[in-house]
Sequence to fold (79 residues):
Amino acid sequence: MTHINGMESFWALLKLGYYGTYHQMSPEHPQRYVDEFVGRHNIHRLDTVEQMEQIAKGLFGKLLTYKMLTRNVGKVART
Fold:
């Protein structure tokens, strides 16, 4: 079920990550931050071992290099 308390809980988790973990979030990658906290929110009721298992399963077969992450940072789109 969807309700406003669930959204408030997610927003609080995102704000806590902003102030407590990152201190600043890159404006080039807002969806990456939101995706990370969506994943955290979706597993927050699991115990620690189950959370680590889910994270490890989600990482399997994925690669994100620094070059891929910074490919278009700072470039101005020309029209």
Q: What stands out?
A: The helical segments are 4-22, 30-43, 48-59, 66-69.
